[in-house]
Specification:
The structure is a single chain. This protein has helices at about 1-15, 20-25, 35-45, 55-70, 105-110, 140-155; strands at about 45-50, 80-85, 90-95, 100, 115-120, 130-135. It is of the alpha+beta class and about 160 residues long. The longest helix is centred in the last third of the chain and has 20 residues, at about 140-155. The radius of gyration is 16 Å and the shape is globular. Residues about 1-25 have low confidence and may be disordered.
């Protein structure tokens, strides 16, 4: 996938097109972690939560360069559900337990204070890998994401993938 994105970026530059257009895709905001939980259980996959804030340019970079393209890539359909939670927002959210809350309250309860933060969780909201906090090293970031997904799949399915 990284090769395809790189090739698209090179072609975009060669033809004078905006580079981000090649990889832009949105990461859906969740309104119900309970719904995501049912889907994760049915598909036997972890849920990857991207905690963001609107004024965070690193969050936009993570969405545009990494997670957005993964959302639309069929190769990830059987690996992970990717959703976004906006830290500090009063948008309504149904938690894993079915109780009503907000994006901001959920993020605070998860002790997410720095964005972007990525957490890979199971259908009950339990963390399956170490959170990825910040953008870290962009050259290795995709590897960190892949590793977190693989660790989550291994714990859910009980075997290496």
């Amino acid at each position: 996938m990284r090769t395809r994105l790189l090739a698209a970026g090179i072609l975009a530059c060669a033809f004078g097109l905006p580079v981000m257009a090649a990889g832009q895709a949105d990461v859906p905001l969740t309104d119900s972690l309970k719904t995501e939980s049912r889907e994760a259980t049915n598909r036997k996959v972890p849920i990857m939560l991207l905690f963001t804030s609107p004024e965070c340019h690193y969050c936009e970079r993570v969405k545009n360069e990494f997670l957005g393209p993964m959302v639309t890539d069929p190769a990830y359909r059987d690996k992970v559900i990717i959703r976004q939670v906006e830290v500090g927002s009063d948008w309504k959210l149904v938690g894993f337990d079915g109780k009503k809350t907000t994006h901001g309250a959920y993020a605070a309860g998860q002790k997410v204070f720095m964005v972007p933060t990525i957490k890979v969780v199971d259908a009950q909201g339990k963390e399956l890998s170490k959170p990825i906090v910040g953008l870290l090293t962009p050259d290795y970031y995709f590897g960190y994401i892949e590793s977190a997904i693989d660790e989550g799949l291994e714990k859910i399915r009980g075997k290496k993938n």
